[in-house]
Specification:
Blueprint (H helix, E strand, L loop, with lengths): L8 H11 L7 H16 L7 H16 L10 H7 L5
Helix pairs in contact: 1-2, 2-3
Length: 87
Amino acid sequence: MTELRINGFEQVRDILIKLKPFIRFKAKQAQAMIDACTLLSQKFIRELSKRELRKLVELTFLIRKENYKSRSSLTKEALNRQLSLTP
């Protein structure tokens, strides 16, 4: 078993873009991660608008939903509260 660590949103995005033609089973997750990395590489998270933060939450839960089993108990509503995105 080998582990590979990639640091930085731009680097992760660039590698996923290159790998995308070869990804079969995790294509939705890969695209969601590319979108999230693109968003996060443009600004610091504290500079993101509420609209951008909501998009990031949606991408996070899309990635999580596509996993076989997610152990995290964090709900979308709880994450929205933490990011002050509740009305």
